[in-house]
Each structure stands twice: as C-alpha cells, then as structure tokens.
Amino acid sequence: MSDPSSTATPAAASPSSAEQPPDRVSPPPTKMDDTIDIFLRPEYRHLTFVNKEQAEYTNLSYWQRIKMNPQVIFESCLGRAVSSYVMGGALGLLMGGFFHTMQPIDVDTTLPFRQQVRQAYKGFGEASVSMAKGFAVCGAVYSGVDCFVERARGSHDLNNSIYAGCLTGAALAYKGGPQAMAMGCAGFAAFSIVIDSFMSTGDKDVHKW
C-alpha cells in the first residue's frame, strides 16, 4: 500500500515565484500627440495669447510708444504724411530753383556786376518756394491717402496707389471744377501706375488688380 504522503499534491507556487507580466511600454509619440500638446500649453489653457511685454506695450499711450521706439512715428498715417510733406518740400525747392535758372534771362549788361546778379536771380526764391509748396502738399496728400486706403483695404498692392493717385489728383484740382478734378484723377492715377511698375521693390504686388 502506497504512502499517502507520497501522493500528496504539490503545494501551490507562491505569488513571488509566479511569472510576472512584462512591463508595459508606452508607444512613441505621434504627430497627433504633438498637435494636441500644443493646445495643452498654458496660453491655450488660460487663454493668454499675449505675453507680458506685449500686453504692457499695448497699454501704453501713443506718446509713450514713441518715446520707447521713435520709428512708431513713421508707422502712422500722420507720420507718413508729415515726412512726405518735408521731403516733398525739399525736392520742390531744388526743382523750382533748377527750372528757374533754365529760363531765358534778360540782363542789362551796362549795370554793375552785383546788380546784374540780382536781376538774373530775381524771382528765384519765389519760384523755389512756390514749387516747394506744391510738392509738399502733393506728397503729404498722396502718402496720407495711400496709407488710409491700404489700412482700409487690408492689402498692399497696386490698387492702393491707383486710388491714392486718383484722390490726390482730384483734391489738388478741386478749384478747377469737376472736369479738372476728373483730369487730375486720371493723370495722377496713370502716373502712379507707371511709378509703381518701374520702381517697385518687390514688397508690393504690382500686378494684382
């Protein structure tokens, strides 16, 4: 007769000796995970898309911005108009003096040299100042209108120059009546097309109609 102890079932294996499942490995991140991570950033979770420096700069007044960055002056339409007024006036002075010297001069050679010089350059200052005023007003009106049209349309193309040229020509010829205003509009618009077509620096789409 066999010994009962020899037929006893083996003891159950302890949990420590049992086979453990392998550690779970996370899959590598995908492009979708990267995209989702972008929207989990603090600026999206708290809806703060403007950093502290930008917020402080936005809250500054116009004159405080100018003090921090003088270039802000030329970013405004008023600044562009004023700068064009000054540059147009300087160009008008040179052009007025040049055209005045090209006119035929009737000088009395019997007079002393100083009087001959005065007679030769008589009206030089008036001609220069007159042309300077015209160039200054034209430049200021054109730059201001071009800036306002550009911001109103939200684009930077040839149409802005056409509209600005037309409005400038009409404004400068308003004293001559509707016909003169129409001629001024057409003339300045055509001139603007020619200038932008030949002098474009590439930052403006001159062929966009």
From TrEMBL:
MF terms in GO: mitochondrion targeting sequence binding; protein transmembrane transporter activity
Protein localization: Mitochondrion inner membrane
GO CC terms, sorted: TIM22 mitochondrial import inner membrane insertion complex
Cross-referenced Pfam families: Tim17 (PF02466)
InterPro entries: TIM22
Biased composition, class Low complexity, residue ranges: 1-18
GO BP terms, alphabetized: protein insertion into mitochondrial inner membrane
Domain of life: Eukaryota
Region (Disordered): 1-32
Keywords recorded for this protein, A-Z: Membrane, Mitochondrion, Mitochondrion inner membrane, Protein transport, Translocation, Transmembrane, Transmembrane helix, Transport
Protein's UniProt keywords contain Transmembrane: yes
Bilayer topology annotation: Multi-pass membrane protein
PANTHER family hit by this protein: MITOCHONDRIAL IMPORT INNER MEMBRANE TRANSLOCASE SUBUNIT TIM22
Family: Belongs to the Tim17/Tim22/Tim23 family.
Assembly with partners or alone: Component of the TIM22 complex.
The protein's role, per its UniProt record: Essential core component of the TIM22 complex, a complex that mediates the import and insertion of multi-pass transmembrane proteins into the mitochondrial inner membrane. In the TIM22 complex, it constitutes the voltage-activated and signal-gated channel. Forms a twin-pore translocase that uses the membrane potential as external driving force in 2 voltage-dependent steps.
Name of this chain's protein: Mitochondrial import inner membrane translocase subunit TIM22
